[in-house]
Amino acid sequence: MDRSIYLGVDVGGTYIKCARLRGTKILKRITMETRAREGLEVSLQQILTAINRIGKDAAGIGIGIAGIIDSKHGIVRYSPNMPGWDEVPLARLLERKSGVPVCILNDVNAACLGEWQYGAAKGCQDVFMLTVGTGVGGAAVCEGRLQFGAHGFAGEFGHIIIKENGKKCACGNRGCLESYVGVRPITRLARRLLRNRKSSLHEAERITPRSIALEAKRGDRVARDIYARIGHYLGIGITNIIHLYDPTIVIVSGGVSNAGRILFDPLRKTVKECVIGSRFRDYWIVPPALGNDAGILGAVYYAKSVAHSANSS
């Protein structure tokens, strides 16, 4: 065993990414397509294969995975991207097969830890991260501690209610933030606006957040209107976050955040108008700095922290 080596794994519905790290330096990495539809055993074997290819001589393994994750007990309670992953004792199963200590946590928690320690929020003690893609996830660091909550499920800010009796959300509630700013709500909004308005988007091969952002940057009014509305909704959600947590930095990540200023400008404007005591607060709303490596770096940081705590007790 090399005590300076840790493995970081990002388990997604599309890809499993595994990296070998010494400190924060990635020495080697592999990516494989996730065969999630083939069941739990196949997916577990894929993770083990990735670990074996990177090297089993590590001091520990940190794994980030989307879903409801019980980090304290190492259990995947539910993962939306992995069919059949219900009440899976993932840490114990992998430890038994690999012989290496394993820690697991929600993928957004992992990314938040990575950005907090090494990226956009380095040096800050109060940080919130919001991921906006197919769904909306969140994670918080308060006074230098990642927030898990009583059951390990803290940070589900995609499901804060921003509009009473609003749009139906996939979770079953109405008016959730996720039902207004995720990929599907954005494309639905675009199609609705395009019924009665002229736009270069009519010529787009596909209507996606990316194609809408591209046309918005070129000055298309409908595309800019779409992102103004999305930015406003996100701004309402982030206002709630600031009122609850009073963070120094809010990081907005995920595919939708790649739109840049056309999203961040209306978002910041809404927050400035809505946050109580805005002129007395020093806060920043920023994109991430580490890209796709944030989750792996954060998962490894978490595994190291758990090992350090165990050795200190």
The DSSP helix count reads 9
Rg computed from alpha carbons, rounded to a whole number of angstroms:
20 Å
Question: How would you name the oligomeric state of the polypeptide chains in this document?
Answer: single chain
Could you give the count of β-strands?
13
CATH structural class of the largest domain: Alpha Beta
Give a verbal description of the structure.
By secondary structure, the chain is an alpha/beta fold. It has helices at 40-54, 90-98, 107-118, 178-181, 183-194, 209-217, 221-245, 261-274, 294-312, and strands spanning 2-11, 15-22, 25-33, 58-65, 68-70, 75-78, 86-88, 102-106, 127-132, 136-142, 145-146, 249-253, 284-286. β1 and β2 (15-22) form a beta hairpin. The model has no long low-confidence stretch (mean pLDDT 91). The chain folds into two domains: 2-107 and 292-312, 2-Layer Sandwich (Nucleotidyltransferase, domain 5), CATH 3.30.420.40; 120-288, 2-Layer Sandwich (Nucleotidyltransferase, domain 5). The radius of gyration is 20 Å and the shape is globular.
Please give a handful of descriptors for the protein shown.
313 residues; alpha/beta; Nucleotidyltransferase, domain 5; 2 domains; five-stranded mixed β-sheet; 9 helices; globular
